[in-house]
């Protein structure tokens, strides 16, 4: 699942020079497992865990959920769970590729990553 998530968001799962990716998770056993850490590191991802009882991390998660509910779920056909699930891939794609994020200078995550990659390539030359 981690490999699929990375590839869906960043393309082929491989180490990208000049860009450090972090896998932020809670302290659940599945995320603390050595196998999960080894897999993340093999993909060039740094495993990071939220501090116990972290208001800041909880706030980031709540912010995402509230934004997603406000901007996407409220506009969806919610007549059945199946219909909602069918709409989710397009909503996540829009959220990651088009939706402006204030914390990213009003760029989408994909636009922000492209800019980081360009800067890393310029710095390497």
Q: What would your notes on this structure say?
A:
2% of the residues are buried. A two-stranded parallel sheet has the order 1-2. The chain contains 6 helices and 2 strands; from the N terminus they run αβααβααα. It is 58% helix and 8% strand. The radius of gyration is 16 Å and the shape is globular. The mean pLDDT is 79.
Topology record:
Elements: H1 2-10, E1 21-25, H2 29-32, H3 34-42, E2 45-49, H4 55-71, H5 81-97, H6 109-124
Parallel strand pairs: 1-2
Offer a concise description of the structure.
With 125 residues, the protein is mainly alpha-helical.
Spatial shape: globular
- The proportion of residues in beta strands is 5-15%
Characterize the quaternary organization of these chains. Answer: single chain
- Strand order within the widest beta sheet: 1-2
Any idea what the radius of gyration is? Answer: 16 Å
- Extract low-pLDDT stretches: none
Looking at this protein, list some descriptive labels.
125 residues; 6 helices; mainly alpha; 8% strand
């Amino acid at each position: 699942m981690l490999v699929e998530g990375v590839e869906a968001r960043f393309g082929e799962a491989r180490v990208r020079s000049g860009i450090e990716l972090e896998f932020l998770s809670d302290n659940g056993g599945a995320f603390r497992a050595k196998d999960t850490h080894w897999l993340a590191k093999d993909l060039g991802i740094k495993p990071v865990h939220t501090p116990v009882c972290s208001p800041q991390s909880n706030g980031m998660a709540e912010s995402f959920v509230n934004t997603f509910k406000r901007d996407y779920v409220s506009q969806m056909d919610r007549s059945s769970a199946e219909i909602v699930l069918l709409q989710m891939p397009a909503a996540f794609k829009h959220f990651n590729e088009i939706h402006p994020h204030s914390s990213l200078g009003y760029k989408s995550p994909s636009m922000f990553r492209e800019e980081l990659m360009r800067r890393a390539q310029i710095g390497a030359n």
